[in-house]
Amino acid sequence: MAFAVTAALLGAPAHAADPAKKSKPAPAAKADAGVEGQDAGTAATPDKDATASQGAGRCTGKANFCGVFSQMYCSSQPGCAYMFGSNMCGGVAIACEKATNEAFCKKIKGCSWK
Question: Per the domain annotation, does 2 fall within a domain?
């Protein structure tokens, strides 16, 4: 309270001397600094832009079942892992439809990019 009295005596506004009051950020501070004219909620992500520039296509087919892979090749199928306790390849191979680009699609055995 001593700050408010001192400020009033000096002719300054009372709120200027009150350290508990905080100023509000400028409206421009809410905008995404990296994208002009768009806020963070509507700015396009680089991943979406890169996928769109690759052209139309989709991953089709049926991913090979993990159980068909030997220990050596088990981890080459996304979603599969070798289980030493049961001496077999297990897990759930990632579905072809989940691949969003050609490079990832080609890593899934049994899938192809069209």
Answer: no
- Nearest-Å Rg of the Cα atoms of the chain is 29
User: 39-71: per-residue pLDDT in tens?
Assistant: 444 444 444 444 444 558 999 999 999 999 999
What is the identity of the amino acid at 65? F
Q: Is 36 within 8 Å of 91 (Cβ atoms)?
A: no
User: How many domains, in total, are found in the chain?
Assistant: 1
Domain assignment present for 106: yes
d(CA 62, CA 94): 9
Domain containing residue 91: 63-113
- Given a contact cutoff of 8 angstroms between Cβ atoms, the answer to whether 88 and 65 are in contact is no
Per the confidence metrics, is the pTM higher than 0.70?
no
Q: What is the DSSP letter of 89?
A: E
